[in-house]
Amino acid sequence: MELLVAMVLSALVIASAGMGFEFIMKQYKQYDKLNDNTSTLASFYAVMNNDVQNSEEVMRHESDLVCRKDSVEVVYSFGDEFVLRVQDLGFRGQGDTFKVKVGAVKIEETENGLVEKLSLEMDDKLLVFNKLYSAEQLISNERISELAN
To answer: Where are the domains of the chain?
Structure first.
């Protein structure tokens, strides 16, 4: 009889330890997924903000966003489940894929087509990128657009 009680108690302890381990593993996986999503979003924001701020001009090309500096172009393509970033280095391109879900892309442009504000709506977040141009850049771009017309 004592052996039976000891076996039942042992079974209960082992079962509760297994359930506790399973619960902790679920919590860890959930935390890991949340941390991974946050890390991806933070790295995407840092890279895109760097491209927007350091570029000489940011323009919309169809559904893509193009950041130009000197002879280097960085093109952002927005998909439903990802954002593709391709940097044209002349002889070869280099690409990055960010697994972020972008709902809506809102772009505000100047009269001559330069992007000055970009808003990306995500599930519960809003990322806003502002590009400030110097007067020299705006006047130069205005003259170029006048010559093209």
So the answer is: 2-148
